Amino acid sequence: MARIHNAFDTLGSTPRICIDIACHPQRLKKYESEVKREISNITSDLLKKLTADSASLSMDSISHKICLVRRKNPDKVRSGSIVAPITPHIQSRLANQFRNMERAEQLRLYKFFAKVPESRRTAGVFYEALAQQRFQERISLSIIPMVKLDRQPTRKSAIPRWYSSHILLTNPKLEALRLKTLHLTIEINISPSRTEEFTDDGPNHIAQDVLYLPEATNHESLDSFIWHGEHLYLFQFSISEVHDGVKARVLTFFNRYPNLPQESNWRFVFIIPPNLMLKSPQPRAEDLRGIGLFSAVVDVHQ
Within 13 Å, how many C-alpha atoms sit on residue 79's CB side? Predict the structure, then answer.
């Protein structure tokens, strides 16, 4: 059962993957190798073709492994289609694949996919690659606490959502909170001593002022992190209006490093483009709620 859940999270939610392949260890291992090979061989032109083919539903075997076509509104049969990487895991691996591309090419592809609403998730691959490349040289950010309302008494089961604080919020109570948080902006200016990639198991040791990025095998709950001074900064890149937020596996990942700052000094920072209002659910796990949620705007066009 764990094997099927892992396949669902990392490779895709299609019946073929979760039933036909995940139930057979040898087939799953072969499929994972095929996905890894296809991603390592992909080029920017091939990704554009994959997206175009998927949008027209003329998907080949490579498209099935990397892309997913879904309705923009799942409740409406005639809703427009959206083409996106099949899982966040695949999206992060694609971002890693394009991380070392020339900046001009990354920017060209980001602009290309950002113009098409159906391909916005694909544009996120290049937004992350551009921002990560910048972070390797310098991390200069103004991070602002996110805001949320208290749980409504009439909806006891509802978990309040966090909202980024960079643009006007239409809810008057949220807007009042947002205006207050603007005075709590934190300026970060870090020049990483080096960049180090880590596998799913994590680095052997975490040192201060080293920017850690996942290898191609990827840790889909975390795009990068750095320990600076008394704080651990966890970065998540998004151009979407909604994000899943902090996941429980983040604690599991960092618990093996006793030298790190305590969780009250962790700062989970969403990196977003200008003019975006991002929403993220409050973690259900109580032990995750002590982690401060922030957002920062990075304009990759500059």
Answer: 14
Those residues whose C-beta lies under 8 Å from the C-beta of residue 106, and which sit 6 or more positions away, are 98, 126, 129, 130, 133
What would the two tokens of residue 144 be?
């602002």
CB 135 within 8 A of CB 235: yes
Model's pTM, two decimal places?
A: 0.74
Q: pLDDT digits over 124-156, tens only? A: 888 888 899 899 999 999 999 999 987 654 555
Burial 205-242 (b: 16+ CB within 10 A, else e): ebeeebbbbbeebbbbbbbbbbbbeebbbbbbbbbeee
Structure tokens at 167: 């643009």
Q: Which residues contact 217 (CB under 8 A, 6 or more apart)?
A: 93, 199, 200
Burial 140-173 (b: 16+ CB within 10 A, else e): ebebbbbbbeeeeeeeeeeeebbbbbbeebeeee
Nearest Cα neighbor of 99 from 128, 123, 139 is 128
Q: Greatest CA separation found in the chain?
A: 56
- At 221 the three-state DSSP class reads coil
